[in-house]
Design brief:
The complex is a heterodimer of chains A (383) and B (221). Chain A is an alpha/beta fold and 383 residues long. In chain A, 35% of the residues lie in helices and 27% in strands. Chain A has a six-stranded mixed beta sheet with strand order 6-7-8-3-9-10, sandwiched between helices. In chain A, strand 4 and strand 5 form a beta hairpin. The two termini of chain A are 35 Å apart. The longest helix of chain B has 38 residues. The chains are: A alpha/beta (383), B mainly alpha (221). Chain B: Belongs to the binding-protein-dependent transport system permease family. Chain B: It is a multi-pass membrane protein.
Chain lengths: 383, 221
């Protein structure tokens, strides 16, 4: 017999969920770290950015942004083009100055630093770009060496560091190739090695995988995850692809029209999106969209002969619970599976199941599911 | 052709090469920083100085719009001040340099403006100073374009150097005018033209090869 009370006690927060109920594989350092609030290494405090308009009216790119990136985390900012995410990431290394508000990186107010101090501060903030931005006149090794030359390292130190970095990104054998002789993925690896050259504490990723094919994207994201885990480097990335967020970020901020409309743990935002913009980004994710044969016949009111359509959200350890079997066994309610998927987000399992329930059993079913800590949503009724 | 003619031709070729080499060298010396400044001092750029940029732009355009033969005559007092005389090969170097500097500056400005803005952003992002960006990013990346521009400038200078013959400068132009035209020696005129064609062809090929060698944007087999 299942002890519902005991189950419920464990369900108070996502964190404790992951810790107490997760199979061992999911009980990683990240879950433990999350219990201790980490110091924010990047902090934006009510930051606004207004550009002087070309024809009189000023254009507001960012409006009252508050954002904290905890030390050692991977935070993804997602937004449509023109939402202000490029401006946001450029504020962090001072390529853009805020119109108002403060940008604090590693304790220093980037927005107030004089030029010389800002250049010095930038050595501890690496950046990678959508179009890689490598010098065509320099080989892979020479490109990686450039930030070190600029920082005034001596030749021997540069050679040693460049070798180390090229090995880290898996390009030791391509050191003397020019960018024109490298593939897109290899160019981005050189970009990453260059960004890491001066041992930064923060890595900014500006749509770093948007110009790459899906397979290359995955390998670059894996590399970024590895760097985050092994070097403890904090990563702030901007993207317009939800897939990037789900595979690498631990926290996400959704930006729309210059404002952050939703932010939080990636798992929470993916499984319980609140804002319409977030939902539209998630619309293409598997299992959220209703199949057309259900969607077309869906009506808002119950009628004789209809059954209720219920979406069940399985989060964390419950994703693999045999809930429907229990429903049938314990309450003798037979359900009809209409759509569903089980997936893994931010390293934690989650699932969506859309079922048809006899109208008479709807209340009992919802109560039963809520007891298991599952999210339920009645989408409508279908004949 | 008589040995005397060959001797004259060789001497004149040497003078032309000397004039062109020195004026191209000086023109690059002055034109490179001027071109870099023109390319980086616009509004919102690395060394933003929009007013200086505009004033220099006007000066450069004014010099370039003056026909060379008029420039030569117009700056005779300046030539005398620098070279001590206004006649001869050495004196000719002064107007050649004055004419080539703004020309080279514009060519270098063009080559530098071709460099991807993303590279400047990347360099700023890893903490490079504006001067470091110019020396380590802009000039190396623009080098193939700069070499092609300088080749064009040298070829133009060969043409200009023939004109200074008209005001007592030496070189192939002077030889062609005095012997070929004024002494009715068509074979000398022909020889001068042939030497100039060979010279221009050789320099252009050299410039093309060098530029191609420097251009790493294209995959070499």
């Amino acid at each position: 017999m299942v002890d519902i009370e005991n189950e419920l006690r464990h369900c108070c927060t996502a964190e404790s969920d992951a810790l107490m109920n997760a199979p061992l594989g999911y009980l990683n350092d990240t879950a433990l770290q999350r219990l201790v609030p980490a110091e924010a290494i990047v902090r934006l405090e009510s930051v606004s950015k207004v550009y002087p308009g070309r024809h009189g009216a000023p254009v507001s790119a960012l409006d009252g942004i508050d954002l904290a990136v905890p030390q050692g985390s991977v935070l993804g900012v997602i937004g449509r083009s023109g939402a202000g995410k490029s401006t946001l990431i450029r504020l962090v290394n001072g390529l853009e100055k805020p119109t108002s508000g403060r940008v604090i990186v590693d304790g220093a107010d980037i927005s107030a630093l004089p030029e010389r101090a800002l250049r010095h501060a930038r050595r501890s903030i690496g950046m990678i770009f959508q179009h890689f931005n490598l010098l065509s006149s320099r080989t892979a090794a020479e490109n990686v060496a450039l930030p070190l030359e600029v920082a005034g390292y001596d030749k021997a130190a540069i050679t040693a560091r460049v070798d180390e970095l090229l090995s880290l990104v898996g390009l030791a054998d391509k050191r003397n190739r020019y960018p024109s002789e490298l593939s897109g993925g290899q160019k981005q690896r050189v970009g990453i090695a260059r960004a890491l050259a001066t041992k930064p504490k923060v890595l900014l990723s500006d749509e770093a995988t948007s110009a790459l094919d899906p397979e290359t994207t995955r390998s670059i994201l894996d590399l970024l995850s590895r760097i985050n885990a092994e070097l403890g480097l904090t990563v702030l990335l901007i993207t317009h692809e939800m897939a990037v967020i789900r595979s690498i970020a631990k926290e996400v901020a959704v930006i729309d029209a210059g404002r952050i409309v939703e932010k939080g743990d990636v798992f929470d935002v993916f499984t319980r999106p609140q804002h319409p913009v977030t939902r539209s980004f998630l619309a293409d994710e598997t299992g959220r969209a209703l199949p057309p044969y259900v969607a077309d016949r869906l009506r808002p009111e119950a009628a004789p002969g209809t059954q209720a359509v219920v979406r069940i959200g399985f989060r964390g350890p419950h994703a693999t619970d045999p809930v429907l079997a229990r429903l049938a066994r314990d309450l003798n309610i037979e359900t009809n599976i209409l759509a569903g998927s089980v997936d893994e987000i931010a390293g934690r399992p989650c699932g969506t199941l859309v079922i048809g329930v006899p109208e008479a059993s709807l209340e009992k079913t919802l109560t039963f599911l809520k007891h298991y800590g599952l999210d339920t949503e009645v989408l409508g009724h279908v004949a | 052709m008589s040995p005397e003619m060959i001797r004259l031709l060789a001497g004149a070729t040497g003078e032309t090469l000397l004039m062109v080499a020195i004026s191209a060298g000086l023109g690059t010396l002055f034109g490179l920083p001027l071109g870099v400044f023109l390319a980086t001092s616009g509004k919102g750029e690395l060394f933003a100085a929009p007013w200086a940029n505009r004033v220099l732009g006007v000066v450069v355009n004014a010099t370039r719009s003056t026909p060379f033969i008029i420039l030569v005559v117009a700056i005779i007092p300046f030539t005398r001040l620098i070279a001590g005389t206004s006649i001869g090969t050495n004196a000719a170097i002064v107007p050649l340099t004055v004419a080539s500097t703004p020309f080279i500056a514009r060519l270098i400005e063009g080559a530098i403006r071709e460099v991807d803005q993303g590279l400047i952003e990347a360099a700023r992002a890893f903490g490079a100073s504006p001067l470091q960006i110019v020396l380590k990013v802009l000039i190396p990346e623009a080098l193939p374009g700069i070499v092609l521009g300088l080749t064009l400038a040298v070829v133009s200078l060969i043409g200009f150097s023939a004109m200074v013959g008209a005001v007592g400068g030496g070189g192939l132009g002077d030889l062609g005018i005095r012997y070929g035209y004024q002494r009715f020696m068509p074979e000398m005129m022909l020889a001068v033209v042939v030497v100039l064609i060979v010279l221009v062809q050789a320099l252009q090929s050299l410039g093309d090869i060098l530029a191609r060698h420097l251009n790493k944007r294209i995959r070499h087999a």
